[in-house]
Amino acid sequence: MIMVCCEQAVLLGASNKVWNDSGMTQQHILDQLFKNYNILIQRIDAHTRSIMDNLGANIACKKGCDDCCQFLTLFPVEAFALSRAFAALSQHDRERVMSQARAGEDACPLLVDHVCMVYQARPVICRTHGFPIYLEKDGDIMVDFCTKNFKGIKEIPKSALLDIDQLNILLTAVNQNFMAHFDADLPDRIPVSDALQLWSVLDIEPIGS
After folding, report:
1. Can you tell me the distance from the alpha carbon of 80 to that of 96, in angstroms, rounded to the nearest whole number?
2. What is the largest CA-CA distance in the chain?
3. Which residue range is the domain that position 71 belongs to?
């Protein structure tokens, strides 16, 4: 399936550039590749934790609530980060996920028994979905959040709102920086089902193999 997003040989050549030009260990190189992305994730998580601390009683999102867990396409930086976490799963869990990916369901293949198998490495959209975001459209400011959340609240504090346009700008910049480490052009978006096997491109040894 990896050939759907791009030729494996091209990606291998790109990753070899990262490997050979540095002399650093594989783990250190991976940490450096994802450094900016991880910083962004930490900032997002800090924001959502603050919301949970202050408005948690009005948030319905919880383990097992997975209506929003649909099939996604991802920026390359998120696809590779997701695949790195996928490689750390047991062989049994990876096989379950790949079986669901081959089934071609609308739901995310990483959702197994209503649980995300790589929850700690979930993409930005999964981390922010359901929380209050605001954006400008045709000069008007719009606020959006999951309709299951914030029932009974007349006004959401401004500090709880996430500027989705600014977040997208930051994520795009992080992704462009990540792609600059590759010789070959990466696709703009990578389906999550293709992203699962990208660990082989970065020479990450999966557990149980």
Report:
1. 20
2. 57
3. 2-200
Give dist(CA 93, CA 104) in Å, integer. Answer: 17
Per-residue pLDDT of the chain (209 residues; tens, 9 = 90+): 222 233 333 343 344 444 445 556 667 777 888 999 999 999 999 999 999 999 988 998 888 888 889 999 999 999 999 999 999 999 999 999 999 999 887 889 999 999 999 999 999 999 999 999 998 888 888 899 998 998 888 889 999 999 999 999 999 999 999 988 877 778 999 999 999 988 766 655 544 54
Whole-structure pTM value:
0.82
Strand 140-144 to 133-137 pairing: antiparallel
Which three-class secondary structure state does DSSP give residue 10?
Answer: helix
Say if strands 111-112 and 115-116 run parallel, antiparallel, or are unpaired: antiparallel
Cβ burial 67-76 (10 Å sphere, 16+ → b, else e):
eebebbbbbb
Number of folded domains that form the chain: 1
Note whether residue 207 is domain-resident: no
Would 206 be classed as within a structural domain?
no
